[in-house]
Structures are given as C-alpha cells and as structure tokens.
Amino acid sequence: MSAAAGVSIRSLLKHQGKAMDMHLLAGEKGLDRTIERPRINKPSLAFAGFMDDLDDCHLQVIGRTELDYLATRPPDEQRRVVQALFDRRLAGVVIARGLTPPDIIIEAAEHTDTPLLSTSLESHLFISQMMVFLSRRLAPVSYQHGVYLDIFGLGVLLIGPSGIGKSEIGLELISRGHRLVADDMVEMVRQGADIIVGHSPAALRYHMEIRGLGVLNIRDMFGAAAITDTKRLRLVIDLVPWEQAKQRERLPLEDEHIDIQGVAMPKVHLPIRPGRSLAILVEVATRNQLMKLRGIDSNKHFMDALQQRIQSGGQPS
User: Fold this and answer.
1) Is 27 within the bounds of a domain?
2) 270 and 174 in one domain?
3) Of these residues, 166, 178, 190, 207, which one is catalytic?
4) Which residue of 116, 172, 191, 244 could cross-link 109, Cys pair, CB 3.0 to 4.6 Å?
5) Which of 76, 103, 246, 250 is catalytic?
6) Domain boundary among 137, 160, 180
7) pLDDT tens sequence across 138-174
8) DSSP summary character for residue 227
C-alpha cells in the first residue's frame, strides 16, 4: 500500500482553480510545494503568537475573522507574527471571500516563496469542498491483481492464480449484462474508515486481455453500458483449483474476509473445474452477498435450524 506523495499548489490550481475561483496573489516560485494532509488549517492561534500546533503540510485558509483580529494588533506585532507564520515554509495560504490581504502578508509570501492564493468562496464553503478534493487525491492506494466488475450494483473482485480464467469469466459476465471496471490490475483507494473504491489504471481502462484473442476494447465491443470507471468494493471471490478446494470445509461455519488496506472485505472461495457454470456461480455469490447486506444469511439460518433440530432430538421446531 502507498499513499499519494502530495498535491502541489500548481496541480491544485490546474484542477480546482476554476471550480473554486482561485488565483495566485504572490509566491509563484513556491508553486511546487505540496499539501500532504487533507485537513485544512486556519492560523487563528498563529496570529496570536501560538505556533507550536501549526503543521506546514496542511493548506492554510485565512478569512475575515483572522484578518480582523490581525488588524487589532500593533503594527510591529502584526509584522512579527506574520513573518513567523510564513517562515514555517507553509504548503500554501488561501485568502477567502475575495478579501484583500494586507501588504505585510503579500510581502511575507514573496519573501518566503510561499504560494498565496485568493478565492471568492467563503471560508467554510472553501474548506468543505477542498477537503473532499484532497481526501480523494491523498487517499492511500494499493494495487491488486484480478478482474473487477460491477455485478448487480456491487463491486466484485475476482482473484486467483494466473491462468485460472479470471478474464474469461469476467468476459462472460459482461456478455450477461454486467459491467467491467478493471482487468488485470485494479487500483484500490481507501476513501473512508471501511470504504475501498476500485478503479482501472488509465493505461488499461476499458481493456481486457483474453488468451488467444489478445487485448479487447470492451467499450467498443459491447458499448458504453458495459463499462464503468469506479465502484465500491463489496466482495472478493477467490478462484481456486478444484484439488485445493477438496481440503476446505463444504459448509464454512464463519464468513471469511480478506484484509485490503486495513479493511476486512468479505471473501468467498469458488472452486474451478471444467463443466461448472462459473459466471452463474459468481452471480449467485454476489446475490448471496446482497442478501447478507440486507441481514439475510442463508447458510447461518440453515446451520442454526440444524442445531435446533439436533438439540430437540430431531423433532421439528
């Protein structure tokens, strides 16, 4: 697993400058400084002289409250705290509501090569929108070998040894009306405490490799309805050779999980052998997971009913 190295101020302006009405006021030489954390800071305490909790890897937002407070301080103290703030080599500073910052802030930004931006948005609105953007861009990322599909609205990842037939099963599922997210290499992004979202790397998007046929463009072959760019992961299906499946219990007493970026994802094992209708079995496994998400666990209900019959001497309850 890896985390994004950071989002540069240059990249921020490129991707969000128009949407958030941002433009550069000063500090152009520092545009390659990076934001490393999604949380946004407001340097209110810094203007009061408390710098200990100031984290330079966060984006700083200055609004009317901060500027009004700064204006109440004597000129010498204003210059001292502003210079001390910008000497921390901040990732970047944004002035909200289109306010005009005092000259001492512009001069400090130029002197320290700190990007100083302006936005017309109010502080709370800018912070909420920017945190959503940064949370996505800075989310931990890992890569998983497999085929990732949208089946009945659930993100389903097919994994297993190379050559076992993951792509062929995926192709059959696509022909049955399900959608491809990624083939061969799946980019997994953790976007919340228990949320993993899967994408396709840009170079592989919409394509599948089928042995004997080569690389197929699924969008061109089946249409736009056969692909989707992203889906939340809900189930992992491990395709295993039939010989290995003989060593496993036919009726597992507990659900299995696989750890992906610290999130326990439901996992089922699907034995592979000639003659099995694997696409249908994957559909059934997905439907079964849908039922579990709704609180209906057929296997558990059956085992509980069987245990009750045993305890009652075989008499129906």
Assistant:
1) yes
2) yes
3) 166
4) 116
5) 250
6) 137
7) 888 889 999 999 999 999 999 999 888 899 999 999 9
8) B
Indicate whether 117 and 158 sit together in one domain: no
**78 and 186 share a domain?**
no
| Residue of 184, 190, 231, 238 marked catalytic | 184
For the question of residue 15 being annotated catalytic, the response is no
Q: Is 89 part of any domain?
A: yes
Range of the domain at 131: 7-137
> Among the options 145, 248, 300, 301, which is catalytic?
145
What is the rounded CA–CA span in Å between residue 44 and residue 62?
8
In-domain check, residue 304: no
The pLDDT of residue 9: 95
Q: Are residues 216 and 187 in the same domain?
A: yes
Q: Contact, 200 vs 182, CB < 8 A?
A: yes
What is the reported pTM?
0.70
Is-catalytic flag, 292? no
pLDDT (tens digit, 9 = 90+) per residue, 268-284?
Answer: 999 888 777 899 999 99
**Position 245 in a domain:** yes
Q: Which residues of 268-284 are buried (b: 16+ CB within 10 A; e: fewer)?
A: bbbbbeeeeebbebbbe
Q: Is 304 a catalytic residue?
A: no
Domains of the chain: total:
2
Active-site residue, 269 included: no
